[in-house]
Write a structure and sequence with these properties.
- The complex is a heterodimer of chains A (563) and B (268).
- Chain A has 563 residues and is α+β, with helices and mostly antiparallel strands.
- Chain A is built from 17 helices and 22 strands.
- Chain A has helices spanning 2-44, 68-77, 126-136, 144-147, 177-180, 245-254, 265-274, 303-310, 312-320, 324-331, 362-371, 400-414, 427-437, 458-461, 480-494, 498-515, 557-562, and strands at residues 48-53, 82-84, 91-93, 96-101, 107-112, 157-162, 165-169, 202-208, 212-217, 236-241, 259-260, 279-284, 288-293, 336-338, 375-377, 380-382, 390-396, 419-425, 442-447, 518-530, 534-535, 554-555.
- In chain A, strands 11, 12, 13, 14, 17, 18, 19 and 20 form an 8-stranded mixed sheet that branches. In chain A, strands 1-10-9-8 form a 4-stranded mixed sheet, covered by helices on one side.
- In chain A, a hairpin with a 5-residue loop joins β4 (96-101) and β5.
- Chain A is globular.
- Chain B has 268 residues and is mostly helical.
- Chain B is 70% helix and 0% strand.
- Chain B is built from 12 helices and no strands.
- Chain B starts with a helix and ends with a helix.
- Classes of the chains: A alpha+beta (563), B mainly alpha (268).
- Chains A and B meet through α6, α7, α10, β17 and α12 of A and α5 and α9 of B.
Chain lengths: 563, 268
């Protein structure tokens, strides 16, 4: 009996210990699971994102922004009425709940969101929008953002229709008016902090000249995610000022930086080889590299060369003799597309899909040249008067892709008996030659397009414009096709109908392809790098490629430390 | 002649011979683009691989060596002669001429060369053949690079002018060009040699730097300077060690040149 009782007690002790053990184990298990879950939710908010600005920001005033570094800061701190979604390229409401452009394209009316405040707690209202527009259009400020809104003689006026409704009236129609508001960061009319009071997801909290800019989360930012959590997730963004790309690359590799925008193809391939998951190729960008000939009437070049450069057949022949596939493959390691015209295929709405890049046809090029009286003699191409065809191509020194393209074009044209001298110049000398002295023969440069709308290209296509590179500031169009481009650009600029605008600009693209005043070479791809520690990144072709959705990015600091 | 000097002779002769025989040794012309294999590693077809646009790197080194070995010493000769003329002669004459020459040299040293070179390039015609661009580049370097050497030479010549043996020669009735040719010039010779040899790598590197400004040798002609520019952006030597060959060649050739100088010449 005693034995049974003793053994029964032992069994009970064993049972109770087992239950205790299981209970403790389950508790530990749930505690671990809970900790992991908490950890992951904590990772969703917090962390510091780090990347480089490649120059010193020239200003923190959103109205005066004119450089890439200031542009990045304005994008991260400024609240805008409407935002072009960098992925879909569609316009999305931000501070404005809705908007309406009048049929004549002269007025835009915004309905604002309720209950928003600036980062310093100052309430946001239609007063602030009116103040921002008045300041933006102040001629004394010389705002380049404001220049895009200048449509004709007369003042821009604002009409406050209520605390949450405001209308802006322009003296003449502005094409693509609503898209321009993507660049207008709203300032407070009443805050004593002036431009430091912001409506964007981050605010500037520290700036060390020549070293870094620290942006912290705006505690009053209005946006929330689908779970109702207030954005942005990040605590802060540290922007190191670093112009040396090699150092930037090394720091990225070491894990000191989380993002790199617009990297060149050499870096990209090296990174892709060592860390494939970090390199991102978003496809053809909006940028283009192109070549053109000097057609300026009083340029200090021989008259017989001016005759060549003004011949459509000559320009088209040169275009056909350039192997664009090789340029894309060799110079950009395949991270570029042969260019068809002034608009990259990446610009989904405005690209004329009928256009194709000029194929490589040296034989056809020679036929075109022969039609203009050019002929080969001892493997040298001579013009009608017996002058050997020789010209120089200038490009900016230090721009490796352009230098390499120039050398490849030199060899391509050499096959037609054309002698090309490649000259690299420092940028100020180059700009002086091509825009003031016109003392050059041909040039290779590129456009870094940030705007989707063709209105931003008026200063290139109008024959009277300063940037009409091949023959700028003409009093009247020098050729019928330039007159036609002038007309079509004015039609698209004065119309509020997107379809009509598209038809006009499609025709402009066709004329440019037929006449080849610019010989488009390639559209380089948008290449970037994103650290594995960053979650939520989705690099796109539009600027800013990697941090366009900064408010939804998170950084896992532990993962960064382990790199 | 010690072993090191013999070896140096061998290296210089071999490099000179190889560069002169580039037409036969190089597997292709320096400008020929093998576009199917850009940036290729070494292979039996391309001993040192190809550059970014597919040009044979070995061929470019051979032709580039020919250009640099011929023209960098020529530029060094021009600058050393100018330095001897301005620094050496002025110091020998002494007095107001020495002060004037030193002032002129100091002024020359303080000029912002980078901007001056940019201006010079902006004034040059664009349609210059690549070969002519090489001559112009090294000529400019030679004409502008004398000031630092002149400073050294003027100090040395000044010291010589006041030395005991020159004073004794003067006291013995030796004057003018005879005193200069017999007593001063032979004693200045080691300094002149040293300045000449020092100038060669300086000019080669200066030409490489000028390439970034657009003042260097025009494409497609290679030079050591343009070959060294390929090292820009090379983050790790282990990735593509063959790209370091132009740098190694420069170091080896310059070391060999230094070894060819006699000990007395170097240490004088």
């Amino acid at each position: 009996m005693n034995t049974n009782t003793t053994s029964g007690c032992a069994f009970l002790r064993f049972l109770s210990r087992s239950i205790l053990f299981v209970g403790v184990s389950v508790s530990i298990y749930f505690a671990i699971v809970f900790a992991i879950l908490c950890g992951s939710s904590l990772a969703q908010s917090g962390g510091e994102l780090r990347f480089c600005l490649r120059s010193e920001p020239k200003t923190f005033d959103p109205m005066l922004v004119d450089d890439d570094a200031s542009l990045s800061i304005r994008y991260l701190t400024g609240g805008v009425l409407l935002r072009a979604d960098r992925k879909t390229q569609e316009l999305e409401p931000e501070l404005a709940e809705s908007w309406k452009v009048s049929k004549d394209g002269k007025q835009i009316t915004f309905k604002l969101r309720d209950g928003m405040t600036f980062s310093d707690g100052t309430p946001f209202s239609s007063d602030d929008v009116a103040f921002t527009i008045r300041r933006l259009m102040d001629p004394a400020l010389h705002s380049s953002t404001g220049d895009a809104f200048r449509s004709g003689s007369g003042d821009v006026t604002t009409k406050i229709l209520g605390p949450d409704q405001v209308a802006i009236i322009f003296p003449a129609p502005i094409a693509g008016l609503d898209h321009l508001f993507d660049q207008v960061a709203i300032m407070s009319a009443h805050s004593p902090k002036k431009e430091a009071a912001v409506l964007g997801p981050f605010m500037v909290t520290a700036y060390k000249a020549g070293s870094s800019v620290l942006l912290s989360r705006n505690p009053n930012y209005w946006k929330r995610d689908s779970q109702g959590q207030r954005l942005p997730y990040l605590d802060s963004i540290r922007l190191d000022i670093q112009s040396n790309r090699d150092v930037e690359m090394l720091r990225f590799k070491r894990g000191e930086l989380d993002l790199m925008n617009t990297i060149d193809s050499d870096y990209f391939d090296r990174l892709a080889a060592s860390s494939p998951g970090l390199a991102h190729d978003a496809g053809a960008s909006l940028d283009s590299d192109f070549m053109w000939f000097n057609q300026v009437a009083n340029a200090p070049i021989p008259e017989y060369k001016r005759v060549w450069f003004r011949s459509t057949n000559f320009r088209r022949a040169i275009s056909q003799a350039i192997n664009r596939d090789d340029l894309s493959r060799v110079v950009f390691n395949g991270h570029a597309q042969p260019a068809a015209g002034p608009v990259s295929p990446a610009n989904k709405f405005w690209f004329n899909s009928k256009l194709k890049a000029e194929p490589y046809h040296p034989d056809e090029a020679l036929h075109r040249l022969q039609a203009d009286g050019f002929h080969l003699k001892n493997e040298t191409l001579l013009d009608r008067s017996g002058n050997p065809v020789e010209f120089s191509i200038v490009t900016n020194a230090g721009g490796k892709p352009r230098e390499r393209m120039a050398v490849m074009i030199q060899e391509d044209l050499g096959k037609l008996g054309i002698k090309v001298n490649v000259v690299t110049l420092d940028f100020p000398s180059l700009i002086e030659r091509i825009s003031q002295k016109f003392n050059y023969e041909a040039a290779i440069l590129g456009f870094r397009n940030v705007e989707i709308d063709p209105n931003g290209q008026m200063n290139i296509w109008l024959s009277s414009a300063e940037n009409h590179a091949w023959n700028p500031q003409q009093k009247s169009p020098g050729t019928p096709w330039e007159a036609e481009i002038d007309r079509l650009m004015r039609v698209q600029a004065s119309s509020a109908d997107p379809k009509k605008r598209k038809e006009s600009f499609d025709r402009v693209q066709e004329i440019v392809a037929e006449q080849a005043p610019f010989i488009y070479l390639v559209n380089p791809n948008a290449l970037s790098a994103v650290s594995a520690a960053v979650a939520g990144a989705n690099p796109v072709i539009l600027s800013p490629q990697t941090f366009w959705n900064a408010e939804r990015l998170t950084v896992n600091s532990a993962m960064r430390a382990s790199r | 002649m010690n072993t090191a000097r013999k070896l140096a002779y061998g290296v210089v002769l071999a490099v000179c011979a190889a560069s002169l025989a580039a037409n036969w040794l190089a597997p292709a012309g320096y400008a020929k683009q093998f576009r199917e294999v850009p940036g290729a590693p070494p292979s039996p077809q391309h001993f040192l691989g190809t550059d970014e646009i597919g040009r044979d790197r070995f061929a470019r080194i051979l032709y580039g060596t020919r250009i640099s070995l011929l023209l960098a010493p020529a530029a060094a000769l021009i600058s050393t002669l100018l330095a001897a003329l301005v620094g050496g002669l002025a110091a020998y004459v002494g007095g107001v001429w020495l002060r004037l020459a030193r002032g002129f040299t100091d002024l020359f040293l303080s000029l912002p060369w980078l901007f001056l070179l940019i201006t010079v390039r902006a004034l040059m015609p664009l349609n210059v053949s690549p070969l002519m661009s090489v001559f112009i580049t090294f000529l400019i370097l030679g004409l502008l690079g004398w000031a630092a050497s002149a400073r050294v030479l003027s100090s040395s010549a000044d010291a010589l002018r006041n030395s005991d043996f020159v004073l004794q020669a003067r006291a013995s009735g030796l004057h003018g060009s005879r005193l200069f040719l017999i007593h001063v010039l032979p004693n200045l010779k080691p300094v002149l040699y040293a300045q000449f040899w020092i100038s060669i790598p300086v000019f080669i590197l200066a030409e490489a730097n000028l390439g970034v400004l657009g003042l260097g040798v025009a494409e497609p002609l290679p030079s050591w300077g343009s070959l060294l520019r390929e090292l820009e952006g090379l983050i790790s030597f282990r990735e593509e060690p063959w790209r370091l060959v132009p740098l190694l060649l420069l170091i080896v050739v310059m070391t060999s040149f230094q070894l060819l100088l006699s000990n007395e010449e170097v240490t004088a």
